[in-house]
Write a structure and sequence with these properties.
The protein is built from 7 helices and no strands. The protein has 165 residues and is mostly helical. The longest helix is centred in the last third of the chain and has 36 residues.
């Protein structure tokens, strides 16, 4: 066997995880290999020192202190989530923004249908419904990108004003 294989067996044997055949292979190899012999002796000495070391003594009130710290952390997290819970405190979209978006949507639908009728009657091929829906989604997303900064700015300014007073 190679030294690499024996090293793994030496480590496993220190924990008593090898059978007699593997233990015999270790003894035969260690008789001829000083490097593996040193490894086995080092592991045995380390294991002996660890067994001589006293077990650590934990304070008696460790469990109570840990429980109290966990409870205080849970309470502080609950208070923070109550302050930051946007679902309950978030204001709805202002009515003028809703009206602007709905009116834009209606105008966009009317414009798209007139565009597609003109496009279809121009002698070329008419657009398929998936293409129409794809264009509609692209335009709708572009408009949402236009309105999003306005809504965010308005919400932040209202939030700032409510925090000041």
């Amino acid at each position: 066997m190679k030294c690499k294989d024996i090293e793994g067996l030496i480590i496993a044997s220190s924990g008593g995880l090898v059978d007699s055949k593997q233990l015999n292979a270790i003894y035969l190899h260690v008789e001829h290999c000083n490097r593996c012999l040193r490894l086995r002796e080092d592991i045995e000495s380390i294991r002996g020192l660890l067994q001589q070391r006293p077990n650590p003594v934990l304070p008696e009130d460790l469990d109570k202190k840990t429980y109290q710290k966990c409870q205080s952390e849970i309470q502080s997290l609950q208070k923070n989530t109550q302050r930051i819970n946007f679902r309950h405190h978030m204001q709805s979209i202002p009515i003028h923004m809703k009206v602007a978006f709905i009116s834009f949507l209606v105008v966009m639908v009317i414009w798209m249908f007139s565009f597609f009728e003109d496009f279809g009657s121009g002698g070329g091929e008419s657009l398929s419904m998936p293409t129409i829906f794809g264009l509609f989604l692209i335009i709708q997303n572009a408009m949402m990108l236009l309105f999003a900064p306005l809504l965010i700015r308005r919400f932040r300014s209202k939030k700032l004003n409510t925090q000041l007073f």
